[in-house]
Design goal:
Helix content: 40-55%
Number of strands: 17
Radius of gyration: 31 Å
Number of helices: 30
Oligomer: single chain
Strand content: 5-15%
Low-confidence stretches: 25-30, 792-800
Shape: globular
Structural class: alpha/beta
Largest sheet: 5 strands, mixed
Length: 800
Amino acid sequence: MTKMTKEQRRKKRKEKELLRQKQRQVGRGKRLAPWEAPKMKMFQLPQLLKEGVPLEKRLDLMRSIGKDAGEKFAALYPQTTKWVTEYDPIYVLSMCAFYLIASPEGTDREATGELEFHHHYLELLQAFALCQPRNHSVQPLCEQLLVLKDHMKEIGKHMLLRHLEIPKQLTSDEEISSYRLRAEMMSHTTAVRNWAYMHQMTKVLIDLAHSIDPAFEAVYGVAPQRFFSMLLQIAEEVQDRLDDYMAKIRKCAAQRDFRAIIAAYNDAFPENMPLTEEQAVWMWKESGEKRLNLLSMLVMHAELKLAHVYSFSLDRALEIAGEGTDKAALQALLEKISFRFGELATANKEHFVLSNPVLDRPFISLEDGTYFSAVWGVLPHLLLDILEDLVWEDKGLRDLYTKSKAQYLEDELERIVRAGFPNGQVFTGSTWQTSTGVAYENDLTVVIDSFAIVFEAKSATVSDPARRGAPSRLSETLRELIESPSDQALRFIDRLKSEPGIHKFRTKRGVVNEIDCGAIKHFIPIGVTLSHLGSIGSNLKKLIAAGIVDKKLEDLAPSISITDLESVFELLTREVEKVHYLARRREFEAHMDFEGDELDLLGFYLDNGFNIGDTEYRKDVALNMLLKSKELDPYFIGSREGHAVPKPRLAMTDWWDAILNRVSEVRAEGWLETGFVLLNTTKEDQEKFEVEFKKLARQVQEGTASHSHHWVVWETGPARRRYVIVGYPHVVDNKEQRNSILAEAIENDANADARGVAVIGVNMKHPHYPYDVLVRRVTTNLFDTLTLDASDASSEQAGE
């Protein structure tokens, strides 16, 4: 037996790894069933540095790591060129898109920790490919595909870590925080894709395109709604071709006999010249009469067809665009969002990281009149920016679009809020003036029970310089999208709170909005954007620390994108849950150090309602919630694809669920406050409360209770957010006597400092599930202060 050399062993390992990679692509090795929601676990990281290490030393360590990463990146990054010059770039891009990016329907490699090749690596490869003429080499990648993957992984790692090299002239906390904020925006720009779910991105894109249809067609000769709908349909066809290709390979792989494998391959690709019996026998011998080797040979041949999977023709585009579409105009528009090989020859490749031209022009125009792209997977993410780039080339079109976009955001906000608060009063476009005559307008306010939620919408776009971390433009953008709506919302709240009676506001529609502030006790400000700011938008402390805004947290409102707001409202079906989320989300953001965006926060809220006890106020704890939203993806994506995926819901017991349902149906005075109190408990607390309640209920029924009238008192939350829930099982039929006992339970001196008290009463003689009576203490202090200073915790936060 011949002993293999070290290089031969290495090559053999690479071949086996490549085979496993290919097997995963045909449906093997999945840890989760399709559309099964993962559970993203939280765990504590060990402390990396000892206590007492000076800040300067910490900075020196970070700078050292960043400098080393920058040097390695600078050395590795230019070497990327070889992958698209030594091989046919179309073939290379197709192989990466298929083997390293695509995954079976309903699975997510990122959620399971198996994603090693991120989409922005593929985008970089496509940009590098366009820097020189196409090489039509037929040389296969084979095991070099894994070498390519490792090369891009190394680049990605160093690309991220090089931001740790904080410039030495930055020494103050504010300067360092500002740099980190810029670095975070740059990382978001480089790597984060899909600003919303597919159905949301599609809706926003098509709605905005439709709003400027005639004007756009007058400039470009093609209706934008048709054009972008066509691109979205082709993206679906690419996915269909990809699924078909994978099904064909699976069918071949399912055969056990080599002749059956060859026959299945001939059936799968009838456009090929069929392999004969003689050729089949020859291939079987060449493969060493090993089934997997034969399959690898056939798959390698089939891979030449991947370029077709990721391409489309002008004629197909014209067919989808529909009758009446001008072919020449359609082609001209496609060419505007495409590159040809060699067109980026003079481009600065370093700029591809933060300003990849492929994201503006994602297609490659080929010599035969077809268009190829490796980035179909993120095309819906790109199309809104592409629409805006086209719009910005014509001033008249730009002005029309800007107005349409602002109106669209306000209309969408009204649609979502009206659907989310069917029992609320919705007021839009309230205009008013200050005592000095300055005019303002509130976009939308919803009043429900004793709560008023004040929304302000901003449709401004995050500019390209801001995305690249340009200090002045980033600051300007964040102030416009976050600080400005905060000012407007809080200013309107101050106006409403200034007088307890009825306020009358004129609107541009000619309707007068009458908002009765007499019963409103709680105000929640919310800023809404069309742009997605990622984790920056959901963490206002970063803006303050970076000196972007010169305000306290009390002077800022949470910022939520319109698509994320829609997702929040879809999952939190009860009005009381929406109110609780919006109120607690503001407090949680202020108190807790965390990393995550809005949907990560939503995923975390569904676990515990933001009820994490004293941990919320600990300054030595930080939560990394990034990827928590992965638990929501199967529902939002799979349900739109027609799959029966369970809807994520706030964790609670069946009894609590039934109580909140009844509260929401009956809607007695103060029902939202009652529900708010009940939501300040975890499922675990609810379970413990129910055990104690049932224990006392049995004693009451058996007459063995220590007192004639007894109740279970359950305290929930940390000291500064203490709520009390009382369980009162009784056999009292006299309502006056029962109410007197309930009043005693509510007004007990031990409950004096509680922010809210609710009593659940059940008549054990003839109980009505889930309760017979539910009452609350009228005086409440539901909202916590935003400051972490415990000495201020007893006072109500600004805006309540």
